Automatic annotation (TrEMBL):
The keyword Lipid metabolism does not apply. It comes from Chitinophaga dinghuensis. It holds the Pfam family Sigma70_r2. This is RNA polymerase sigma-70 factor (ECF subfamily). GO terms for molecular function: DNA binding; sigma factor activity. Residues 27-94 form the RNA polymerase sigma-70 region domain.
Length: 183
């Protein structure tokens, strides 16, 4: 996967040193969404994921004169968000599984995470096309991990409605996501 950000690591490092707000803003616009999806993958909390990405960019701005980016800018940012996410999980003393502890900074791991982020982006774009209630039920089930009975109780709807809405969402996802890619 090619990095489409128009500036080289050396140019970004120099822009940080010069406090070039335009390049900093372009960097944020180019990567903040993908970084949020990556942080959310690790911490499973939307607000915390947003905070991690925000704090990374604040840190980059505050420590601009000390930042040296080697390799692709995207790799640097992905690694920084992954490290910050893992540190936050440790700080909060959440269960940190083997998958997180053994995460490697090699090219294959990067591509795996990049694929995950791209898939999450495509999934979220598709979910925006679902009816609001259907989308809400799907997110509560698949993203927040609630059981159908919990969703029914929380939304004050029948269990059959939950199952029906989930089937609509899953069928729609199958058609749009798998229809493009022959397995």
């Amino acid at each position: 996967m090619k990095d489409v950000f128009p500036y080289s690591p050396a140019q970004v490092t120099e822009a940080f040193r010069n406090r070039d707000i335009q390049i900093f803003q372009e960097l944020y616009k180019a990567y903040s969404e993908e970084l949020y999806l990556l942080a959310h993958h690790w911490v499973k909390d939307s607000d915390l994921a947003r905070d991690i990405v925000h704090n990374l960019f604040v840190h980059l701005w505050e420590k601009a004169d000390q930042v040296i980016i080697e390799g692709q800018v995207k790799h640097y940012l992905f690694r920084a968000v992954s490290n910050r996410s893992l540190n936050e999980l440790k700080r909060r003393k959440r269960h940190v599984g083997e998958e997180l502890l053994q995460f490697q900074a090699d090219e294959q791991s990067f591509h795996h995470m990049a694929d995950y982020v791209l898939f999450q982006r495509e999934l979220m774009q598709h979910l925006q096309g679902l009816p609001p209630r259907c989308r809400e039920i799907f997110l509560l089930s698949r993203i927040h991990g609630l059981e159908p009975a919990e969703i029914a109780s929380q939304l004050n709807i029948s269990l059959n409605t939950v199952y029906f809405q989930l089937s609509i969402a899953l069928k729609s996802l199958r058609v749009s996501l798998l229809g493009k890619k022959k397995l």
